[in-house]
Amino acid sequence: MNKLNPSEILLIEDSESFAAMLCEQLMQFGYRPLWRRNTDTLLEDLRDNPGITALICDVFLEEGSIGPLLERKKAAAGGSVLPPTIFISGHLDFMTRLQAARAGAVAFFPKPLDIGALVDCLERLIRPTTATPYDILVVDDDHAVAQYHASLLNHAGMTTRVLSDPTRVYDALLEREPDLLVLDMHMPVCSGVELAAVIRQDPRFVGLPIVFLSADHNIERRIGALSFGADDFLVKPIDPDFFVSSVSVRASRYREMRSQISQDSLTGLLNHTSIKRQLDIEIVRAQRSGRPVSFALLDLDHFKRVNDTFGHPVGDEVIRSLSRLLGQRLRQTDIAGRYGGEEFAVILPDTPLQDAGRLMDQLRLAFRQIVQHPVGKTFHSSLSCGIASFPAVPANHLISFADKALYESKRLGRDRVTLIGEKPAGTG
Ligand SMILES: Nc1nc2c(ncn2[C@@H]2O[C@H](COP(=O)(O)OP(=O)(O)OP(=O)(O)O)[C@@H](O)[C@H]2O)c(=O)[nH]1
């Protein structure tokens, strides 16, 4: 979900003030809440708002317990299925939880609400469960053969790119790293083994699975290929099912390994190394397309004070609240990462500086609204941001200039966004 496609949430809560607070918080995370005091119009609301993806209901309303009320509604609608329902309540006893479970709760949150945990739960419910298909690059100088193998993989639900010119492989990898590379062994310009050696020279592709597909039965050459960095050597003609499962098993393991390595454990965002790597990729893409790419650095303000006042675990929660907000507010093509302790980086492809500035300013304002630490003494945090854009700023200066802009935001009093339009004169 992103801000262009906000999910609607139906909130059934009889306390107006609590509902207003919760709606405000949900909006900060990019949801569109619809509030009702009771279940009177539930079926009409669901019919008229097909975009409603989840219900949040207080277990007890003035008119009684929500469980039997929902049951009656479902019966009235011929037993139709309600969207996943999260229950909330100020009562924490076992019987209340049991009521919620009997009413079909997918989750139960006590009041006062931990909004962050609630949003995490909504995200799990709403996020599409279908993973993106494995992306395979097939390289074979015989285009028809490459197409045949690609079509087997497409049939099994994978996406493929086909290349008959091995000299273009490296560019294709930079453009979009696949989950696996299928290589022919004998090609006119260079052999598959040589091509694998070229790819392995780049530390970014050291782990990329390479599977050779060749009619070569010579055992020494096959061993040679494996020792030069191939992961498997499949001999043609190959059983289609065996080919597909060999590819998908390796692609799946690689993807799992990559996500473990590339993610920051606290936030689930890309870590420092991965975000820098993504920036390189986006710059290459921008150089090709002639479109701008903006790079933003965000830093929490006076964060030491938060840790000192409320403790490290609460500080961690603040960090997580910003990562959630980034997940909510950015477009699917934008890329966010945790750059350092309380510092985040965002890559905005196809985005000129001024647009990036507006977007980050909206994010800054939304972050300020989030009620932090709602189970204790509440407070609000703010962030400072610096943005630079390529090509106005040369690629090798993009990060340092975003950092200078961030420093300027801090210097001017924090809680602001500063843009650096171009590389200032005399900076080398
Ligand atoms: N809770 C928590 N704190 C962290 C983490 N990483 C860094 N920090 C803390 O973040 C604080 C950053 O402090 P400073 O660099 O002095 O910056 P600041 O207090 O945010 O002040 P300004 O950036 O100037 O507004 C330090 O106290 C770090 O210990 C983390 O993962 N969790």
TrEMBL record:
Keyword set includes Cytoplasm: no
Domain of life: Bacteria
GO molecular function, one term: diguanylate cyclase activity
GO annotation, biological process: cell adhesion involved in single-species biofilm formation; negative regulation of bacterial-type flagellum-dependent cell motility; phosphorelay signal transduction system
EC number: 2.7.7.65
Limits of the GGDEF domain: 291-422
Keyword set, alphabetical order: Phosphoprotein
One term under GO cellular component: plasma membrane
Gene3D superfamilies per the UniProt record, alphabetical: 3.30.70.270, 3.40.50.2300
Reaction(s) the record says it catalyses: 2 GTP = 3',3'-c-di-GMP + 2 diphosphate
Response regulatory domain location: 8-126, 135-251
The protein's enzyme class: transferase
Protein name: diguanylate cyclase
Species: Parazoarcus communis SWub3 = DSM 12120
Lineage summary: Bacteria, Pseudomonadati, Pseudomonadota, Betaproteobacteria, Rhodocyclales
